[in-house]
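Thread title: Can someone regenerate the structure for this chain?

I was given the following input by a collaborator and told the matching structure tokens would be attached. They weren't. Posting the sequence so someone can regenerate them.
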Amino acid sequence: MSENKKRQKVLVTGSAGFIGFHLSRILIKEGYQVVGLDNLNDYYDPQLKKDRLLELGIPAEELSDYNILIGSDKFENFGFIKLNLEDRINLPVLFSQEKFYKVVNLAAQAGVRYSLENPAAYIDSNIVGFANILECCRQHGVKHLIYASSSSVYGKNKKVPFSTEDNVDHPISLYAATKKSNELMAHTYSHLYGFPTTGLRFFTVYGPWGRPDMAMFLFTDAIINGRPIKVFNNGDQERDFTYIDDIVAGVVKIVNKKNSHGYSLYNIGNSEPVNLLKFIEEIEKKLGKSAQKEMYPMQPGDVERTWADVKSLKRNFEYKPDTTISKGVEEFVNWYKTYYLE
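Best answer:
Regenerated them for you:
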């Protein structure tokens, strides 16, 4: 553990979430002082979020209180606070007290389809919350903000692979619109205040401890429990499935960069699209059980294909995703069985 990292405090918002949990765990091991933040909402089972935090040494019985920084039972360099990004009172207090060196903002209301049902949640967390993060970073001397955008911003773009140079002015879901808004807001802060921001457009992240609303989880859970799976667009879809360890390795490289300047935007994905039916077939192989498929048309807000152009991330940060679909699916299935069946 380097002395520099021991003195550098990093805030990870959404630290009870899928990517935030994995990132926090690696940053802790890297030697940073890490503070995790999450509001533990019930978009999906909060128990899964609490169990992730338990892996980081945060006892569930202490998670009922808001605005209290809890120390980890396992890691001396990790603490957690339950807090909403929309909280204009307590969020600035946290920044003032902790004096963060860098911030990784992963907290957001996730999900394309849910944005059709509850648009207010996306405005509150993804727009108001992100504006609060930007302002706190500016006011309290944070050296670099790294934040989650999404491949959803590409909408129905036909040109592949998707490049950050492509026009993304026509989002087809409110979720995508909020993520595009985040990029614009970050650009404005970088331009006006010389504040370094880096946006990352994540492409279909999967792996152990994954979200229950994502395809990997939904398919595995249904097949194991003998339920049919819903296959949209009759399976004629491709996704740039990216294993969680590859994603986190890329984010850590950006956090580790000593000097950052201005506004940056990158795709972060595997850059190898996989057909949805092939993905399901891989799950079937690992489970030793066939899926009952129910075919459905394309859903509102959904797209036929995602494919990340990651050349700039590879060039600037030596990003090297190398987990095969076979290996990644195996790791998820093994975790699912351990967590739910043992």
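The mean pLDDT is 95.
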